[in-house]
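Can't paste images in this forum, so I'm doing it all in text. The chain is below; anyone willing to post the predicted structure tokens underneath?
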Amino acid sequence: MNVNRIIEVYQGETLNALREFIFAWWQHNNITAVLAPVELSNPAGVQLAVIEDPQQLMSVNPFAPVMINNTAGEALQILDNHSFEKLALILRPCELRTFIELGNIGRLPTGLENTLLVGVDCPGVLYPDEFRRQVDILGVETLTRSVLHDLSEGHLQSTSMRKACQICRWSSPSRADVVIGVMGVDVENVILIIARDEIIDAREHLERVTFKLASEYQLSHRETILGALAEKREEVRNKMNANFQDQCPFNDLGCLLSFFANCTLCGECLKACPIFEFRKTASLHKASLVEDLVLISRWLASCTGCGMCEQECEQGVPLSLVVNSLNHRICQELQYTPGEINQEVPWIK
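Text version of the structure:
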């Protein structure tokens, strides 16, 4: 059962309150590293960083509306090449699902007992160029403050966000050890800190680094906002998928392939996908056509909808819509949901 706590925010400084919480948490739990987005002084605005000095936590910003990389993919490389006594990963919902799916398909290394999964509420993010444009006008802190205000008020302006975010099924992380909740929360005064169960709450000493237990109203209001967003996203997703089906029935392979007419085979979409990195180990260039199709269908079934493939495509191929439609159809046939923990993957023996 979840344990729901809050931390106080002073003078509306939500990010500072979060940073101070993570700093105190670090000290109470002997955390040795945190992988999280951090603010930069240069025009890029934000980048992922492995923080090993707690003083650097004062630049953490998991709510800046941009994904430069899928953090789960970065975490995979870090875990392959380094070992930490205790590593905390701060992940958006799609990144968390990607991390879990990497475990489902056997890509994660063993010995992750001391890896802590921290999820954050996410309404979606902007394309990097649009993010940089707004950062040039507002700055990262002001832009983030605006996003947090919209989250607290339930103003969910999805049309300005990436297409993958507009159709995303998950705006709140599931299966995280700890969730940082801001959706439908009065973030100028409090932030929700939600432990997955009593064991994690006690192990992480959350009572020592939070203010008090959350009220029923705070929890129910968050659920109301999350439900409203889920309904809105479902409407958008159904409309886009219906339009896609009208333009390109699944049984018309030629029509489907026409969506890739502008593709130059640069491979940037696949490089951006941490799930496909696993599939490449199968040496697709040596496989038969049937084997290629089987491996591609398995990769599509494992898609968690992070949208990094479309974000990296310079040719405007509508990958989020195509992949989402194919993923939905394949997962229906397999009765499989990517990113669900302890789920038996149909093709892994």
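The two ends are 32 Å apart (CA to CA). Residues 3-233 form one domain.
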